[in-house]
Amino acid sequence: MSKEHRDESEGEELPVSTKLEQLYELIDGIEVAMFTTRRRDGSLVSRPMQTQARRAGTDLWFMTSGETHKLDELNDYPEVNLAYYKDGTREFVSVSGHAVVTKDRATIRELYKPDWRAWLGDEGGDRDGGPDDPRIALIEVTAESATYLKVNSPRVITLFKIAKAIASGTPPKAGDLGHLDRGELSAGQGRT
């Protein structure tokens, strides 16, 4: 059995409820994801986007302007990847999912944050960056699978484990490596 496979197996030994808690904690603590879409020519493009909310368990929401090219990309290829990384701890989350764009005013008003004005600007009239700005669109990502690393020891100990691994030639177990499939993610629906 390869070391990589063994690490994944160790993460899968965790109960689903623990893996879901770790996943939620990481996403809530990192906030900004590299949001990857596919262009019409097949190339991939990533851009940083702030997670606006996590509702219904693992469904994630992002705000964007309805006038961006990413909406054309999502219309053609709704499959996306979200990559979260926390530099201080080296924790990460990778979520593969399906994106849907909505301009539902009630949902926009519910999720609206005043800092959206900074990203949209004030063009006057109803295009003022406020909750009724017609440019605002939301992207809902329904998670299909997720992989993450949750560090479970202080940074000093993690650095020691890495140094020991370099000296011994044995990869460190820096934390819990977890993987959740759609069925396991569905178990988290309704949790916030």
CATH first level: which class? Mainly Beta
Structural class by secondary-structure content: alpha+beta
**CATH topology-level fold name:** Pnp Oxidase, Chain A
Element string (H = helix, E = strand): HHEEEEHEEHHEHEH
Proportion of residues in extended strands = 25-35%
Strand count? 8
- CATH architecture grouping: Roll
What is the 3D shape?
elongated
Q: Give the helix tally.
A: 7
Low-confidence stretches: 1-12
The largest sheet, given as strand count, sense and whether it forms a barrel, is:
8 strands, antiparallel
Rg measurement, Å: 19 Å
Give the % helix.
Answer: 25-40%
Structure explained in plain terms:
The chain is of the alpha+beta class and 192 residues long. The protein has a single domain, classed as Pnp Oxidase, Chain A (Roll), CATH 2.30.110.10. 33% of the residues lie in helices and 34% in strands. The protein contains seven helices and eight strands; from the N terminus they run ααββββαββααβαβα. It has helices at residues 3-12, 16-30, 69-76, 105-111, 116-120, 155-168, 182-186, and strands at 32-38, 44-50, 53-55, 59-65, 79-86, 91-102, 136-151, 175-180. β1 and β2 (44-50) form a beta hairpin. The longest helix is centred in the N-terminal third of the chain and has 15 residues, at 16-30. The two termini are 37 Å apart.
Helices and strands in order, then pairings?
Blueprint: H1 3-12, H2 16-30, E1 32-38, E2 44-50, E3 53-55, E4 59-65, H3 69-76, E5 79-86, E6 91-102, H4 105-111, H5 116-120, E7 136-151, H6 155-168, E8 175-180, H7 182-186
Antiparallel strand pairs: 1-2, 1-5, 3-4, 4-7, 5-6, 6-7, 7-8
